[in-house]
Model the fold of this input.
Amino acid sequence: MQFTNTIFIEQSLHTTFSFVSNFRNLPQWNYAVIESEQISEGSVGNGSAFRQQRQFMGRILEDRFVITEYEIDVIVSIKSTQAEYPFQISYQFKPFDKGTLITNKFELNGGAVDFLGFLLNPRVKNAVAGNLNKLKDLVEKL
Done:
């Protein structure tokens, strides 16, 4: 399952990037994430590793992921390293008007997702869009 969402946030590029790329903030704006913590040493960047608990398809899952691409104020991408449903997610940032345009690319695989992707895709895409709207509300208040 793959899709892309785009959202405009009325906040500076740097503030928006800083909030999104701090994956400890995920539970504040992603309804499925219960907890997210950095498990690697040092500052956030390429190779930083995280553990998260999330709710998916009625179950609590624990995933681990790593930042695979990190360029300040431009892009942050992650890829699961341990997950029942492997994922890759990227956030691209561009200055736009008086704010920031985020393009979010999302890919989810494995088990029921591979088999029922055509049914789940619209629901998951809408849920991710809802998360991005919550992100917009939070970041615009910073």
